[in-house]
Write a structure and sequence with these properties.
By secondary structure, the protein is α+β, with helices and mostly antiparallel strands. Helix content is 42%, strand content 11%. The protein contains 8 helices and 4 strands. Strands 1-4-2-3 form a 4-stranded antiparallel beta sheet. Strand 2 and strand 3 form a beta hairpin. It is globular, with a radius of gyration of 18 Å.
Length: 246
């Protein structure tokens, strides 16, 4: 019982910190409205929310449905906006699910929900050329078969509001970005016992082909079944305090 009480308190604390972050950055942004011309920190984390997904046991408001960062390998030159743009897709509404596990997961769930048939090439290979060779079809055929689902994924993900946190330490598996990402996912995941704010019965992720997504209530496939260390919240608080007001 003590662990459950502590987890609820830690969840409440995380959402309070995200509330302070929201006030500092001037509010959430919908992904489809974001561009590289906006003022983004070079390195950081993102927290996605989703229509219809609300907190229920830790207070009121939207619940986080995905947490992520970018390039934790030493020497990585990736940026926060670079990662977000991969999730958002192209200006024309298309995208590349092979460059974004988030897009891949949402695409499979949309297809399994019955929106459309899942293209045989979806998730196959590191590129359309590899998929075409494996399936013994033309590359143009692969691109054409995937185009409609890529558009649907862009529309769905593009509607999601997000918050971002500037964490500018150097890329490393032990960086504060990695620490916050893994522990925040573990805290909010339902995989190790029901979280205070479980996914709604209508959540799209329930159609995922991945048990870790269905079980966690998050569009995450890593860290969902790990324990968390409450001290990571002190790092989040320090980083939120360092964010200048918009």
């Amino acid at each position: 019982m003590r662990a459950c009480v502590t987890r609820v308190a830690d969840t409440i604390r995380l959402y309070r910190l995200l509330g302070r972050l929201e006030a500092k950055v001037g509010g959430m942004r919908r992904l489809q409205e974001c561009t590289g011309r906006m003022a983004w920190p070079r390195r950081g984390l993102y927290f996605f929310f989703e229509a219809g997904e609300m907190r229920s046991g830790s207070g009121e408001g939207r619940r986080v449905v995905r947490i992520g960062t970018h390039g934790l390998t030493e020497g990585s030159r990736s940026t926060l906006w670079g990662r977000l743009s991969q999730h958002r897709g192209t200006e024309g509404g298309g995208g590349n699910h092979r460059g974004s596990i988030f897009r891949l997961l949402v695409g499979v769930a949309l297809a399994r929900q019955g929106v459309m048939a899942l293209p045989p090439s979806w998730g196959v290979g590191a590129g359309t050329g590899t998929a075409a060779r494996r399936l013994n079809v033309d590359r143009a055929e692969v691109k054409a078969a995937e185009a409609e689902l890529e558009l649907r994924v862009s529309r769905y993900v593009g509607e999601m509001p997000l918050l971002w946190l500037d964490v500018g330490d150097r890329p490393s598996p032990s960086s504060e970005r990695g620490l916050i990402e893994s522990n925040a996912i573990a805290l909010l995941s339902s995989s190790r016992g029901e979280a205070p704010d479980p996914a709604s019965t209508a959540w799209l992720g329930r159609f995922s082909d991945r048990e870790r997504v269905r079980g966690s209530g998050l569009w995450n496939n890593r860290h969902v079944d790990e324990p968390y260390c409450p001290s990571f919240l002190d790092v989040v608080e320090r980083r939120v305090e360092d964010v200048p007001a918009a």
